[in-house]
Amino acid sequence: MLGSTFANFQVLEKIGQGGTADIYVVNDQTGQRYALRVLRAEHRYNWRRIWRFRRECVLLELFDHPNIVHGFGHGKFRGQRYSIREYVEGGNLKDRILRSDPQVQVHRLKLLTGMAAGLAHIHEHGYMHLDFKPENVLVTAAYEPKIVDFELCTRRPDRPKRIGKMPGTPAYLAPEQIARQPIDERVDIFAYGVTAYEMLTGKKPVTGNTVQEVLQKYARFDEHLKPLRTHVPTIPPNIERVVLKCLEKDPDRRYPAMSLVVRDLQS
Questions:
Q1: Which of 85, 132, 141, 193 is disulfide-compatible with 247, CB 3.0–4.6 A?
Q2: Span 40-56, average pLDDT
Q3: What whole-number distance in Å separates Cα of residue 194 and Cα of residue 93?
């Protein structure tokens, strides 16, 4: 596809390849850059993948927030399903954590507040992300965070609800998810806490490669969870308090809403 024209966009470069879709940098006729996401050919007749792909496109076009990657349209071109979305140059937060990028600490309040505000917007529109983690946060050159990957996003229930499958990445799942108890948007608040802890300290509060391993450690969660300032003494106490409240094992002791996380970070 490189150098070709796809749905009136000039394909410049391939920047990502996942199990579901390939991602390219494209220009429109005015020279404006976008990200083009194309469903991989092997999923052309996989109706479950198609449904998830189209649903994510609709959600990206629904959400309208500076800390969420924006969708500009989707469709089919020569039998291939695609979406056009905001192009963010700079990689994801996980890459920056692994590189120990010093600018992450310089801009930590901007990153923390932006991620919280983006999640609050998702919740206020009646959805849960369910796969919030550093890999799903793009970071601009100005260190503004942009939330991506809404394939697991689902409706936020009026009251905690048990879901059939346990979506997400084991290390970022809330204790109630792993225990297969009813959940609500507070699982995103816990995942935000894990992401914030990892961003600020370079370590996860609880590690594990499998659900079973994480579950065993959650049984003694308080023993494994260390204050952030144990690892990095220069973290402001107020930020530490906010992150630890997001990481409460009991969801009733967590923040009830992401908007309150934003409020406390700004205070």
A1: 193
A2: 90
A3: 13
The C-alpha atoms of residue 266 and residue 239 are separated, in whole angstroms, by 10
Q: Taking all residues of the chain, what is their mean pLDDT, rounded to a whole number?
A: 91
Q: What residues have CB less than 8 Å from 78, skipping those under 6 apart?
A: none
Domain ranges within the chain, ordered by starting residue: 5-85, 93-266
Q: How far apart are CA 37 and CA 16, in angstroms?
A: 9
**d(Cα 42, Cα 21) in Å, to the nearest integer?**
10
Indicate which residue of 131, 149, 184, 188 is catalytic: 131
pLDDT, tens digit (0-9, with 9 covering 90-100), for 198-235: 999 999 888 767 767 777 777 677 777 889 999 999 99
CATH code reported for the domain at 5-85: 3.30.200.20
The CATH fold of domain 93-266? Transferase(Phosphotransferase); domain 1 (1.10.510)
Measured over all CA atoms, what is the biggest interatomic distance in the chain, rounded to whole angstroms?
57
**Residue 100 phi/psi, 5° resolution?**
50, 45
Q: Specify the pLDDT at position 208.
A: 67
264 is catalytic: no
For the whole model, what pTM was predicted? 0.92
Output the pLDDT for position 179.
81
Cβ-Cβ contacts under 8 Å for 119 (sequence gap 6 or more): 129, 132, 147, 188, 189, 192, 258
C-alpha distances (whole Å) from 161 to each of 66, 123, 154, 184, 192 are: 30, 15, 12, 7, 20
